[in-house]
């Protein structure tokens, strides 16, 4: 009996930890950054900078994205969804491209939390406008 309860608890925890895949239609629109944290070294962009620079990311129905910072395009390219990852294909100034993932930590109809990994990684919390 005890073993069955343990298995039931483990199965329940597994189900709770599973998050549904992201769908492109859930991303479409403009997402205003309200928090940016950099874990290495631990640092955050302060609220005043976020208000002044007004950064946001915009996902379009043509599966393109544009990241704005300070009223200027910081980055642009296309995206595709792979489970909980947004795979960004950034178009660089010399017309070359690079691909990298944004891992979606949380997504609701009003809030998106995504992160990048590695030494330059960061976590962004954004709200839909």
Short key terms for the protein model shown above:
Lipocalin, alpha+beta, eight-stranded antiparallel barrel
Model description:
The protein has 129 residues and is an alpha+beta fold. The chain has one domain: Lipocalin (Beta Barrel). The longest helix is centred in the first third of the chain and has 16 residues, at 2-17. The chain has an 8-stranded antiparallel barrel. It is built from 3 helices and 9 strands; from the N terminus they run ααββαβββββββ.
Based on the coordinates given, report the CATH architecture. Beta Barrel
Proportion in helices: 10-25%
Instruction: Please count the helical segments.
Output: 3
From the 3D structure, determine the CATH topology. Answer: Lipocalin
In short:
The protein is 21% helix and 48% strand.
Q: What's the helix and strand layout?
A:
Elements: H1 2-17, H2 24-27, E1 29-38, E2 43-44, H3 47-53, E3 56-59, E4 64-69, E5 72-82, E6 85-91, E7 97-107, E8 111-115, E9 123-128
Antiparallel strand pairs: 1-2, 1-3, 1-9, 3-4, 4-5, 5-6, 6-7, 7-8, 8-9
């Amino acid at each position: 009996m005890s073993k069955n309860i343990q298995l039931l608890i483990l199965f329940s925890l597994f189900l709770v930890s599973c998050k549904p895949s992201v769908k492109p239609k859930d991303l479409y629109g403009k997402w205003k950054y309200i928090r940016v944290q950099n874990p290495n070294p631990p640092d955050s962009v302060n609220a005043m900078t976020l208000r002044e620079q007004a950064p946001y990311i915009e996902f379009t129905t043509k599966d393109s994205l544009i990241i704005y910072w300070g009223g200027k395009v910081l980055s642009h390219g296309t995206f595709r969804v792979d489970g909980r990852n947004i795979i960004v294909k950034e178009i660089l100034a010399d017309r070359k491209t690079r691909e990298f993932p944004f891992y979606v930590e949380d997504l609701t109809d009003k809030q998106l939390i995504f992160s990048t990994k590695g030494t330059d990684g960061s976590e962004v919390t954004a709200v839909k406008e």
